[in-house]
Amino acid sequence: MRDREKAKKKNGGNHWVLRVFLMSVALSAVLSLLSSVALSGAGYVVAVLVLLAFIALGILFDMIGVAVTAADPRPFHSMAAHREKGGREAIRLLNNAERVSSFCNDVVGDICGIVSGSTAAVIVTQLQHSLSTTSVLLSIGVTALISGATIGGKALGKTVAINDCTRVVHRVALVMSTLHLSRGKG
C-alpha cells in the first residue's frame, strides 16, 4: 500500500510541475499583454503606474505565500467548525501551503519581476529619448530604484506576513469565499 501512495504522490508532484509550467506560461502571457497594451503610447505617468502595480502585485503575492507557510491552522479549524466565512478556504490554503507558496512566490512573484523589468526598459527608453541621451547611468539608476522598491517592499511584506500570518491568510480566505459565493450565484 505504501508503494502505491508513494507512486501517487510522485505522479501528483509531476502533474503539479506541469500545471505550474502551464500556469506560468499563461499568466506571463496575460500580464505581458496587459503591460504592452497599457504602455503602448503611454506617457511616463502611466508607465510608472503600471510599474508600481506590478511591483505591488509581486509584493502582495509574496506576502501571501509566506503567510500561508507560517500560519497555524488551529484558529481556522475553529472558524470552519463554526461555519465562519473564510474558514474552509483558509484550511484549504494551509493544507496546500507548499503549492500556494510556490504559486504566489514563484509563479506570480517571478512573473511580476520579469514584467516590471520590461516596464523599466520602456521607461528608460522613453527617458533616454526625451532627454536625447543614451546614458548608461540613467538605466542603472532606474534599475537600482526598481530593485530597491521591490526588495524593500518584499522585506516589509515578509515581516508583516510572518508577524500577522493569521490575519493575512484570513483576508485571502475571505476574498476567496466572496469570489466563490459570487461565482456560485452567477
Give a nutshell description of this structure.
The protein is an all-alpha fold.
The sequence of SSEs as H and E is HHHHHHH
Strand content: under 5%
How many strand units?
A: 0
Q: Kindly report how far apart the N and C termini lie.
A: 43 Å
The helix tally amounts to: 7
User: Which whole number gives the mean pLDDT?
Assistant: 87
- Pairing-aware structural class of the strands and helices? mainly alpha
Oligomer: single chain
> What is the C-alpha radius of gyration, as a whole number of Å?
20 Å
What's the shape? Answer: elongated
Spans of at least 5 consecutive residues with low confidence: none
Structural account:
The chain has helices at 2-39, 44-70, 74-81, 87-95, 97-131, 136-163, 165-185. With 186 residues, the chain is mainly α. Helix 3 (74-81) runs antiparallel to helix 4, helix 4 crosses helix 7 (165-185) and helix 5 (97-131) packs antiparallel against helix 6. The longest helix is centred in the N-terminal third of the chain and has 38 residues, at 2-39.
